Structures are given as C-alpha cells and as structure tokens.
Amino acid sequence: MDALTLTPLQHIPLIRQGSNLADIVVSALQENKIGLANNDILVFAQKIISKAEGRAVNLTAVTPSQKAIELARQIDKDARVVELILRESNEVLRTRPGTIIVEHKLGFVCANAGIDHSNVDSPLPEGEGQGVRWAGDSTEEWVLLLPTEPDRSAEKLRHEIESKTGKRIGILIIDSHGRAWRNGTVGTAIGISGLPGLEDLRGKPDLFGYTLRITQVGVADELAAAASLVMGQAAEGTPVVHVRGFPYPLREGSLQELIRPKEQDLFR
Length: 268
Fold this sequence. Notes:
- The chain is globular.
- The chain has a five-stranded mixed beta sheet with strand order 1-12-2-8-9. Strands 4-5-6 form a three-stranded antiparallel beta sheet, covered by helices on one side. A two-stranded antiparallel sheet has the order 3-7.
- By secondary structure, the protein is of the alpha+beta class.
- About 25% of the residues lie in helices and about 25% in strands.
- Helix 1 packs across helix 5 and helix 3 packs across helix 4.
- The chain is built from six helices and twelve strands.
- The chain folds into two domains: about 1-55 and about 150-260, CATH 3.30.1330.100; about 60-145, CofE-like fold (Alpha-Beta Complex).
C-alpha cells in the first residue's frame, strides 16, 4: 500500500449562498501548489455545501407546529429548531433533554437531523433577501440544514472540477455524527461521487489464507473520519481536504451503500 496523504486546503474564503465551489477549490489547489492527479479525492465539509446551496434558515422566519411546541417543551429545546428537525426527518426514534434522534430524510440515523448552529452566519450579503431580516440579525438566529441531495451535490462538483482540470477524481461530502455504541463524534460520509462507499472483502483470503466471510469495510466513512481529523471541528477554517493514495480503486458509489436497512438495525 502506498502512503495515504491528506492535505487541508488553505485560503478557502467564507462561503455564501451561490458561491461557486468548483472555482474556489481549483483556485485553492493552485495556491496550495497541489497539482490534481487522476484518482485523487477531494473531501468537503457539509457546511460549505449547505451554505452554497442556500440551506441556511433564519429562525425568526420559522413558525413551529403544535407538535413541535409540545416536543420542545418535553426536551427543553427551541421549538423553532424542533420544527425544522421534524420537517427534515422521516421518523423520531429517541429523545432526551436537548437532543432528538431521528431517521433523516436521507435515510441515516443522526441527532437533530444534522441541523447545526456552529459557524453559521447570514448566508447573503447585507441587504439581500426578500421577506426575511438579513442585516443585523444575530448569528445565533441562523441554523444550517443538510444538503437536500448530497450525492447529487458531490456528483455536480466532481463533474465541474473534472471539466476544469481534466483529471478523474472522487468527491466526498462529510458531516460529524455520533454513534450508538461510542462516545464522541466522528467524520461520516453523507455524499459520495466517484469512489466506493463500501468495499466488500468477502471471498478474499486473509493473511493466513482463510476466506473472509462477513468483512465489508465502510471505506468512505474511514476516509471521512481521517479528513475530519485534519479539518478540525472549531475555527480552523479548512473545510476542504485533498487526498492522495486512497487504497481502493475509484468507482461510482453512493451514500446508499452505507445505510443499513431498518430490519437489520439492532439499535432501533
């Protein structure tokens, strides 16, 4: 196996609604003196995808339903945020003070439908927008929803960057998720294009010649966790990571490879 190298890209500007991420990343690669090569992968933090796609919501514009108000009262959470969580979810699975565990509309289980308060400010320049207060709003009034179709977002970015560079690459969009059996959040794949989500090793021999029978590796999640480690989780400002040396062949992939069917999910 060759070395796996992950390089967080410096000089990524603050992303606003409508920002052209492909142009921004190609420029950042040049500034970081990285020549994109075939089989490289670019990993994007979900936040900048959501910001560019206009998924920021001002809580002052949200009217909670009675269901959201009642649930918010039970768990001591802002009813407007609860309303957004319900809108973004297929099903509420568990609740505890401050947290709602849901099946997101994208199919995976996560806390609070992936809705985030941190590092979110007004998505448009001051004075823009219709019917919503933009200028002078408190940063705390803004929340960010996950991309509507992150696989499609990844595919669009991949085709745009490949067109600009002439290189065959993979794109991974990641978010930070908790796990049912461990403390702490880790980087998790939520959007995939041009690389495998799952690598099936069943039928292959191990070191001693035994045939593997059940081993399937969540390679996109493994890469997501590594990229999240070098991105950081606070004020680092490095939401894109360049990857070289990924130890599996690139192919078409999707988020669905990683989502366990409900009937096989022992934690529901």
